[in-house]
Amino acid sequence: MDLTLRLATAVLTASLLLPLRPAQAQLAGHGGPVRAIAVSIDGKTVLSGSFDTAAIRWSLATESAEQVLRFHSGAVNAAAFLGDGRMATAGADGQIAIWTPGRLQPDQVIEGHTGPIVGLAVSPDTSKLASASWDHTVRISSLSDGGTRVLQGHSQSVNGVAFAPDGKSLVSVGYDLTVWIWPLPGGSPEIVVMPAPLNAVAISPDGEIVTGAADGKLRMMTADGKENGEVVAGARPIVALAISQDGALIATGAIDGTVAIVDRRARSVMRTLAGLGAPVWSVAFLPDGATLLTGGADGKIRRWNALTGAAIGSNVLGTPADPLAAYVGDHGAEMFRACVACHTLSETEVQRAGPTLAGLFGRKIASLPGYRFTDALKAMDIVWTPETVSKLFEIGPNAYTPGTKMPEQRIGSAEDRRALTDFLARATSK
Protein backbone atom coordinates (compact mmCIF):
# COMPACT_ATOMS: atom_id res chain seq x y z
CA MET A 1 0.00 0.00 0.00
CA ASP A 2 1.74 3.19 -1.18
CA LEU A 3 0.78 5.02 1.97
CA THR A 4 2.04 8.61 2.17
CA LEU A 5 0.43 11.92 2.93
CA ARG A 6 1.82 13.75 -0.08
CA LEU A 7 -0.52 14.96 -2.80
CA ALA A 8 0.20 14.77 -6.49
CA THR A 9 1.27 18.18 -7.79
CA ALA A 10 -1.43 18.20 -10.44
CA VAL A 11 -4.35 18.31 -8.01
CA LEU A 12 -6.33 21.45 -8.81
CA THR A 13 -3.19 23.52 -9.42
CA ALA A 14 -4.91 25.57 -12.09
CA SER A 15 -7.80 26.55 -9.83
CA LEU A 16 -5.46 27.90 -7.20
CA LEU A 17 -3.72 30.15 -9.70
CA LEU A 18 -6.98 31.89 -10.57
CA PRO A 19 -8.71 34.63 -8.54
CA LEU A 20 -11.07 33.10 -6.00
CA ARG A 21 -14.62 34.45 -5.80
CA PRO A 22 -16.16 35.21 -2.42
CA ALA A 23 -18.13 32.39 -0.82
CA GLN A 24 -20.49 33.30 1.97
CA ALA A 25 -18.91 32.05 5.19
CA GLN A 26 -17.25 29.26 3.25
CA LEU A 27 -13.65 29.68 2.13
CA ALA A 28 -13.16 27.37 -0.84
CA GLY A 29 -9.92 27.15 -2.78
CA HIS A 30 -7.69 24.37 -1.50
CA GLY A 31 -7.29 21.25 -3.60
CA GLY A 32 -6.99 18.93 -0.64
CA PRO A 33 -7.84 18.58 3.06
CA VAL A 34 -7.29 21.73 5.14
CA ARG A 35 -4.65 20.65 7.63
CA ALA A 36 -4.06 23.94 9.47
CA ILE A 37 -5.92 27.16 10.29
CA ALA A 38 -4.47 30.23 12.01
CA VAL A 39 -6.29 33.47 12.80
CA SER A 40 -4.63 36.90 12.99
CA ILE A 41 -4.68 38.79 16.29
CA ASP A 42 -7.31 41.24 14.98
CA GLY A 43 -9.46 38.39 13.64
CA LYS A 44 -9.58 39.83 10.14
CA THR A 45 -7.26 37.43 8.36
CA VAL A 46 -6.99 33.64 8.20
CA LEU A 47 -4.00 31.56 7.12
CA SER A 48 -4.67 27.99 6.05
CA GLY A 49 -2.44 25.09 5.04
CA SER A 50 -3.43 22.04 3.03
CA PHE A 51 -2.36 18.60 1.87
CA ASP A 52 -2.27 20.23 -1.59
CA THR A 53 1.14 21.77 -0.60
CA ALA A 54 -0.22 25.35 -0.62
CA ALA A 55 -1.05 27.90 2.06
CA ILE A 56 -3.70 30.57 1.50
CA ARG A 57 -4.09 33.97 3.17
CA TRP A 58 -7.78 34.86 3.37
CA SER A 59 -9.67 38.06 4.11
CA LEU A 60 -12.67 37.40 6.34
CA ALA A 61 -14.15 40.77 5.39
CA THR A 62 -14.45 39.81 1.71
CA GLU A 63 -14.41 36.05 2.30
CA SER A 64 -11.90 35.59 -0.49
CA ALA A 65 -8.28 34.57 -0.96
CA GLU A 66 -5.78 37.44 -0.92
CA GLN A 67 -2.69 35.37 -1.64
CA VAL A 68 -1.71 31.76 -2.40
CA LEU A 69 1.66 30.91 -0.85
CA ARG A 70 3.64 28.24 -2.70
CA PHE A 71 6.94 26.99 -1.37
CA HIS A 72 6.60 23.63 0.40
CA SER A 73 7.17 20.36 -1.47
CA GLY A 74 4.75 18.45 0.75
CA ALA A 75 1.59 18.97 2.76
CA VAL A 76 1.39 22.22 4.75
CA ASN A 77 0.56 20.89 8.21
CA ALA A 78 0.95 23.98 10.41
CA ALA A 79 0.48 27.75 10.16
CA ALA A 80 0.90 30.71 12.50
CA PHE A 81 0.76 34.50 12.54
CA LEU A 82 3.82 36.20 13.99
CA GLY A 83 3.71 39.35 16.08
CA ASP A 84 5.01 41.67 13.35
CA GLY A 85 2.34 40.82 10.78
CA ARG A 86 4.39 38.13 9.12
CA MET A 87 3.32 34.50 8.84
CA ALA A 88 4.88 31.07 9.28
CA THR A 89 4.06 27.85 7.48
CA ALA A 90 5.54 24.38 8.00
CA GLY A 91 4.98 20.99 6.53
CA ALA A 92 5.86 17.51 5.46
CA ASP A 93 9.14 18.69 3.93
CA GLY A 94 10.50 19.51 7.41
CA GLN A 95 10.92 23.20 6.62
CA ILE A 96 9.47 26.38 8.12
CA ALA A 97 8.84 29.32 5.79
CA ILE A 98 8.52 32.88 7.11
CA TRP A 99 6.38 35.13 4.90
CA THR A 100 5.60 38.83 4.54
CA PRO A 101 2.09 39.41 3.13
CA GLY A 102 2.20 40.21 -0.57
CA ARG A 103 5.63 38.74 -1.27
CA LEU A 104 5.82 35.73 -3.58
CA GLN A 105 8.68 33.98 -1.80
CA PRO A 106 9.50 33.43 1.88
CA ASP A 107 11.69 35.98 3.64
CA GLN A 108 13.41 33.17 5.48
CA VAL A 109 13.45 29.37 5.51
CA ILE A 110 14.23 27.59 8.79
CA GLU A 111 15.68 24.10 8.37
CA GLY A 112 16.86 21.43 10.77
CA HIS A 113 14.00 19.00 11.24
CA THR A 114 14.53 15.62 9.56
CA GLY A 115 10.84 14.66 9.49
CA PRO A 116 7.48 16.28 8.80
CA ILE A 117 6.55 19.27 10.96
CA VAL A 118 2.97 19.03 12.24
CA GLY A 119 2.71 21.84 14.80
CA LEU A 120 3.82 25.45 15.33
CA ALA A 121 3.51 27.76 18.34
CA VAL A 122 4.54 31.40 18.78
CA SER A 123 5.85 32.52 22.17
CA PRO A 124 3.79 35.14 24.07
CA ASP A 125 6.43 37.80 23.43
CA THR A 126 6.49 36.75 19.73
CA SER A 127 10.27 36.36 19.79
CA LYS A 128 10.36 32.57 19.34
CA LEU A 129 8.72 29.93 17.19
CA ALA A 130 8.40 26.33 18.42
CA SER A 131 7.92 23.42 16.02
CA ALA A 132 6.80 19.83 16.62
CA SER A 133 8.02 17.11 14.28
CA TRP A 134 7.71 13.44 13.52
CA ASP A 135 11.52 13.30 13.85
CA HIS A 136 10.79 12.99 17.63
CA THR A 137 12.07 16.49 18.42
CA VAL A 138 10.84 19.96 19.26
CA ARG A 139 12.84 22.93 18.03
CA ILE A 140 12.65 26.49 19.36
CA SER A 141 13.80 29.03 16.77
CA SER A 142 14.63 32.63 17.60
CA LEU A 143 12.89 35.00 15.21
CA SER A 144 15.42 37.72 15.93
CA ASP A 145 18.86 36.13 15.72
CA GLY A 146 18.10 32.79 14.03
CA GLY A 147 19.37 30.69 16.92
CA THR A 148 17.80 27.27 17.49
CA ARG A 149 17.40 25.06 20.54
CA VAL A 150 16.58 21.38 20.04
CA LEU A 151 14.48 19.61 22.70
CA GLN A 152 14.95 15.83 22.65
CA GLY A 153 13.26 13.14 24.69
CA HIS A 154 10.14 11.95 22.90
CA SER A 155 10.52 8.39 21.63
CA GLN A 156 7.98 8.75 18.81
CA SER A 157 6.36 11.44 16.68
CA VAL A 158 5.76 14.80 18.38
CA ASN A 159 2.28 15.89 17.29
CA GLY A 160 1.66 19.17 19.11
CA VAL A 161 3.36 22.04 20.91
CA ALA A 162 2.16 25.09 22.88
CA PHE A 163 3.70 27.88 24.95
CA ALA A 164 2.37 28.67 28.43
CA PRO A 165 0.70 32.12 28.59
CA ASP A 166 3.50 33.47 30.80
CA GLY A 167 6.17 32.17 28.44
CA LYS A 168 7.90 30.26 31.24
CA SER A 169 7.34 26.81 29.79
CA LEU A 170 6.66 24.94 26.58
CA VAL A 171 4.47 21.85 26.37
CA SER A 172 4.85 19.09 23.76
CA VAL A 173 2.77 15.95 23.22
CA GLY A 174 3.40 12.86 21.17
CA TYR A 175 2.38 9.49 19.89
CA ASP A 176 4.53 7.99 22.67
CA LEU A 177 1.73 8.76 25.19
CA THR A 178 3.75 11.48 26.92
CA VAL A 179 3.36 15.16 27.79
CA TRP A 180 6.63 17.03 28.26
CA ILE A 181 6.58 20.34 30.15
CA TRP A 182 9.83 22.10 29.28
CA PRO A 183 10.88 24.96 31.61
CA LEU A 184 12.19 28.03 29.81
CA PRO A 185 14.84 29.16 29.24
CA GLY A 186 16.16 25.81 30.53
CA GLY A 187 16.02 23.05 33.10
CA SER A 188 14.76 19.48 33.49
CA PRO A 189 11.34 18.81 31.94
CA GLU A 190 8.35 17.36 33.75
CA ILE A 191 7.17 14.20 31.96
CA VAL A 192 3.60 12.92 32.28
CA VAL A 193 2.56 9.53 30.87
CA MET A 194 -0.97 9.39 29.48
CA PRO A 195 -3.32 6.46 28.70
CA ALA A 196 -3.43 7.02 24.92
CA PRO A 197 -1.36 8.50 22.08
CA LEU A 198 -1.66 12.29 21.92
CA ASN A 199 -2.38 14.22 18.73
CA ALA A 200 -2.92 17.79 19.92
CA VAL A 201 -2.34 20.22 22.79
CA ALA A 202 -3.58 23.70 23.71
CA ILE A 203 -3.15 25.86 26.80
CA SER A 204 -5.88 28.09 28.23
CA PRO A 205 -5.28 31.70 29.31
CA ASP A 206 -5.15 30.59 32.96
CA GLY A 207 -2.41 28.05 32.16
CA GLU A 208 -4.41 24.82 32.14
CA ILE A 209 -3.02 22.26 29.69
CA VAL A 210 -5.54 20.43 27.48
CA THR A 211 -4.54 17.41 25.39
CA GLY A 212 -6.46 15.61 22.64
CA ALA A 213 -5.93 11.88 22.33
CA ALA A 214 -6.41 8.98 19.96
CA ASP A 215 -9.10 7.54 22.25
CA GLY A 216 -11.37 10.56 21.67
CA LYS A 217 -10.77 12.06 25.12
CA LEU A 218 -9.66 15.49 26.26
CA ARG A 219 -7.46 15.39 29.34
CA MET A 220 -6.73 18.45 31.43
CA MET A 221 -3.81 19.10 33.73
CA THR A 222 -2.38 21.93 35.76
CA ALA A 223 0.61 23.92 34.56
CA ASP A 224 2.92 21.61 36.52
CA GLY A 225 1.40 18.41 35.11
CA LYS A 226 -1.14 17.37 37.74
CA GLU A 227 -4.30 15.60 36.50
CA ASN A 228 -7.20 18.01 36.45
CA GLY A 229 -10.13 16.32 34.68
CA GLU A 230 -11.17 14.74 31.40
CA VAL A 231 -13.98 14.88 28.85
CA VAL A 232 -15.07 12.26 26.30
CA ALA A 233 -15.35 14.37 23.14
CA GLY A 234 -16.20 11.48 20.82
CA ALA A 235 -15.53 7.89 19.85
CA ARG A 236 -12.80 8.54 17.28
CA PRO A 237 -9.28 10.01 17.50
CA ILE A 238 -9.05 13.75 18.11
CA VAL A 239 -6.80 15.31 15.47
CA ALA A 240 -7.46 19.03 16.03
CA LEU A 241 -7.89 21.16 19.13
CA ALA A 242 -8.47 24.85 19.93
CA ILE A 243 -9.37 26.94 22.99
CA SER A 244 -11.30 30.20 22.72
CA GLN A 245 -9.46 33.41 23.60
CA ASP A 246 -11.41 33.77 26.86
CA GLY A 247 -10.71 30.15 27.79
CA ALA A 248 -14.39 29.24 28.10
CA LEU A 249 -14.73 26.85 25.15
CA ILE A 250 -12.73 24.00 23.66
CA ALA A 251 -13.30 22.78 20.12
CA THR A 252 -12.13 19.38 18.89
CA GLY A 253 -11.98 17.94 15.40
CA ALA A 254 -11.99 14.18 14.92
CA ILE A 255 -11.06 11.71 12.22
CA ASP A 256 -14.74 10.81 11.69
CA GLY A 257 -15.77 14.44 11.10
CA THR A 258 -17.12 15.03 14.60
CA VAL A 259 -16.64 18.56 15.95
CA ALA A 260 -17.35 18.81 19.67
CA ILE A 261 -17.81 22.09 21.53
CA VAL A 262 -16.79 21.63 25.16
CA ASP A 263 -17.48 23.85 28.16
CA ARG A 264 -14.00 23.81 29.68
CA ARG A 265 -14.99 24.79 33.19
CA ALA A 266 -18.02 22.47 33.37
CA ARG A 267 -16.02 19.61 31.81
CA SER A 268 -18.89 18.72 29.50
CA VAL A 269 -19.74 18.58 25.80
CA MET A 270 -22.17 21.40 25.02
CA ARG A 271 -22.97 20.22 21.51
CA THR A 272 -21.67 18.40 18.48
CA LEU A 273 -21.66 20.08 15.07
CA ALA A 274 -23.48 17.91 12.56
CA GLY A 275 -23.19 17.13 8.88
CA LEU A 276 -19.45 17.14 8.27
CA GLY A 277 -18.99 13.41 7.64
CA ALA A 278 -15.34 13.45 6.49
CA PRO A 279 -12.35 14.12 8.80
CA VAL A 280 -11.95 17.59 10.32
CA TRP A 281 -8.22 18.26 10.39
CA SER A 282 -8.18 21.79 11.85
CA VAL A 283 -10.20 24.08 14.12
CA ALA A 284 -9.68 27.68 15.25
CA PHE A 285 -11.68 30.28 17.18
CA LEU A 286 -12.00 33.91 16.13
CA PRO A 287 -11.17 36.47 18.86
CA ASP A 288 -14.87 36.90 19.70
CA GLY A 289 -14.81 33.47 21.35
CA ALA A 290 -18.08 32.51 19.67
CA THR A 291 -17.13 31.97 16.02
CA LEU A 292 -15.40 28.74 15.09
CA LEU A 293 -13.62 27.85 11.86
CA THR A 294 -13.24 24.23 10.77
CA GLY A 295 -11.04 22.84 8.02
CA GLY A 296 -12.34 19.75 6.29
CA ALA A 297 -11.26 16.92 4.06
CA ASP A 298 -13.17 18.55 1.19
CA GLY A 299 -10.73 21.48 1.12
CA LYS A 300 -13.21 24.00 2.55
CA ILE A 301 -13.12 26.21 5.63
CA ARG A 302 -16.50 26.68 7.31
CA ARG A 303 -17.78 29.12 9.91
CA TRP A 304 -19.95 28.20 12.90
CA ASN A 305 -21.57 29.84 15.90
CA ALA A 306 -19.96 27.73 18.62
CA LEU A 307 -22.50 28.90 21.21
CA THR A 308 -25.55 27.72 19.26
CA GLY A 309 -24.01 25.16 16.92
CA ALA A 310 -25.53 26.93 13.92
CA ALA A 311 -23.71 27.12 10.61
CA ILE A 312 -23.00 30.72 9.57
CA GLY A 313 -23.85 31.64 5.99
CA SER A 314 -23.84 29.20 3.11
CA ASN A 315 -22.03 26.25 4.63
CA VAL A 316 -22.69 23.44 2.21
CA LEU A 317 -23.08 20.55 4.57
CA GLY A 318 -24.95 17.54 3.32
CA THR A 319 -23.63 14.11 4.18
CA PRO A 320 -21.00 12.73 1.84
CA ALA A 321 -21.61 9.23 0.59
CA ASP A 322 -19.85 6.71 2.80
CA PRO A 323 -17.22 5.03 0.58
CA LEU A 324 -17.54 1.92 2.77
CA ALA A 325 -21.36 1.78 2.74
CA ALA A 326 -21.30 -1.38 0.63
CA TYR A 327 -19.26 -3.17 3.28
CA VAL A 328 -21.51 -2.77 6.32
CA GLY A 329 -20.70 -5.46 8.87
CA ASP A 330 -17.34 -6.28 7.28
CA HIS A 331 -14.72 -6.26 10.05
CA GLY A 332 -11.93 -5.63 7.57
CA ALA A 333 -13.73 -2.56 6.23
CA GLU A 334 -13.99 -1.18 9.74
CA MET A 335 -10.25 -1.68 10.18
CA PHE A 336 -9.75 0.22 6.92
CA ARG A 337 -12.01 3.13 7.92
CA ALA A 338 -9.12 5.16 9.38
CA CYS A 339 -7.40 4.93 5.96
CA VAL A 340 -10.36 6.40 4.03
CA ALA A 341 -9.20 9.94 4.84
CA CYS A 342 -6.17 9.50 2.57
CA HIS A 343 -6.78 6.57 0.22
CA THR A 344 -9.38 5.46 -2.30
CA LEU A 345 -10.11 1.86 -3.25
CA SER A 346 -10.85 2.64 -6.89
CA GLU A 347 -9.16 4.65 -9.62
CA THR A 348 -12.52 6.22 -10.49
CA GLU A 349 -12.76 8.09 -7.16
CA VAL A 350 -11.34 11.59 -6.74
CA GLN A 351 -7.79 11.30 -5.44
CA ARG A 352 -7.25 12.06 -1.78
CA ALA A 353 -4.06 12.91 0.10
CA GLY A 354 -2.48 9.53 -0.61
CA PRO A 355 -2.36 7.38 -3.75
CA THR A 356 -5.21 5.08 -4.71
CA LEU A 357 -4.99 1.49 -3.51
CA ALA A 358 -6.63 0.11 -6.65
CA GLY A 359 -4.59 -2.88 -7.86
CA LEU A 360 -2.56 -2.83 -4.67
CA PHE A 361 -1.39 -6.42 -4.27
CA GLY A 362 1.50 -7.31 -6.55
CA ARG A 363 2.57 -3.68 -6.99
CA LYS A 364 6.04 -2.52 -6.01
CA ILE A 365 6.15 0.23 -3.42
CA ALA A 366 6.28 3.78 -4.83
CA SER A 367 5.65 2.62 -8.40
CA LEU A 368 2.16 3.98 -9.05
CA PRO A 369 2.30 6.32 -12.09
CA GLY A 370 1.29 9.94 -11.59
CA TYR A 371 2.03 10.16 -7.88
CA ARG A 372 5.09 11.81 -6.29
CA PHE A 373 6.76 9.47 -3.80
CA THR A 374 9.73 10.20 -1.56
CA ASP A 375 13.17 9.05 -2.70
CA ALA A 376 13.37 6.84 0.40
CA LEU A 377 10.29 4.85 -0.68
CA LYS A 378 11.48 4.61 -4.28
CA ALA A 379 14.68 2.94 -3.10
CA MET A 380 12.86 0.10 -1.31
CA ASP A 381 12.26 -3.38 -2.75
CA ILE A 382 8.95 -4.05 -1.01
CA VAL A 383 6.15 -5.57 -3.08
CA TRP A 384 2.71 -5.16 -1.55
CA THR A 385 1.16 -8.49 -0.57
CA PRO A 386 -1.11 -9.50 2.34
CA GLU A 387 2.06 -10.40 4.23
CA THR A 388 3.90 -7.11 3.65
CA VAL A 389 0.82 -4.99 4.41
CA SER A 390 0.35 -6.97 7.63
CA LYS A 391 3.98 -6.34 8.54
CA LEU A 392 3.53 -2.60 7.86
CA PHE A 393 0.83 -2.37 10.51
CA GLU A 394 2.47 -4.83 12.88
CA ILE A 395 5.65 -2.79 13.41
CA GLY A 396 4.45 0.60 12.13
CA PRO A 397 5.18 2.66 8.99
CA ASN A 398 8.16 4.50 10.51
CA ALA A 399 9.97 1.22 11.18
CA TYR A 400 8.91 -0.70 8.07
CA THR A 401 9.03 2.12 5.51
CA PRO A 402 11.41 4.79 6.87
CA GLY A 403 10.91 8.06 5.02
CA THR A 404 7.16 7.63 4.61
CA LYS A 405 4.81 10.51 5.41
CA MET A 406 2.08 8.14 6.54
CA PRO A 407 0.93 8.81 10.12
CA GLU A 408 2.37 6.34 12.59
CA GLN A 409 -0.17 3.65 13.43
CA ARG A 410 -0.13 -0.02 14.35
CA ILE A 411 -2.61 -2.87 14.53
CA GLY A 412 -1.61 -5.12 17.41
CA SER A 413 -4.02 -8.00 16.74
CA ALA A 414 -2.99 -10.55 14.10
CA GLU A 415 -6.69 -11.28 13.56
CA ASP A 416 -7.43 -7.62 12.86
CA ARG A 417 -4.50 -7.38 10.46
CA ARG A 418 -5.73 -10.46 8.60
CA ALA A 419 -9.24 -9.00 8.37
CA LEU A 420 -7.75 -5.83 6.86
CA THR A 421 -5.66 -7.63 4.26
CA ASP A 422 -8.56 -9.93 3.30
CA PHE A 423 -10.72 -6.82 2.79
CA LEU A 424 -8.07 -5.10 0.68
CA ALA A 425 -7.73 -8.20 -1.49
CA ARG A 426 -11.45 -8.02 -2.27
CA ALA A 427 -11.93 -4.27 -2.48
CA THR A 428 -8.87 -3.22 -4.47
CA SER A 429 -8.98 -5.89 -7.18
CA LYS A 430 -12.25 -4.67 -8.75
TrEMBL record:
| The Cytochrome c domain, residue ranges | 327-428
SMART domains according to UniProt: WD40
List, alphabetically, the Pfam families matched.
Cytochrom_C, WD40
Where the WD repeats fall, as residue ranges, is 27-68, 69-99, 110-140, 151-182, 273-314
Q: Does the keyword Electron transport apply?
A: yes
Task: Mention one GO molecular function.
Answer: metal ion binding
**InterPro entries, A to Z:** Cyt_c-like_dom (IPR009056), Cyt_c-like_dom_sf (IPR036909), Cyt_c_1A/1B (IPR002327), WD40/YVTN_repeat-like_dom_sf (IPR015943), WD40_repeat_dom_sf (IPR036322), WD40_rpt (IPR001680)
Q: Record's CDD domains?
A: WD40
Q: PANTHER family recorded for this chain?
A: TRANSCRIPTION INITIATION FACTOR TFIID, TRANSCRIPTION INITIATION FACTOR TFIID SUBUNIT 5
Q: What is this protein called?
A: Cytochrome c domain-containing protein
Q: What is the lineage of its organism?
A: Bacteria, Pseudomonadati, Pseudomonadota, Alphaproteobacteria, Hyphomicrobiales
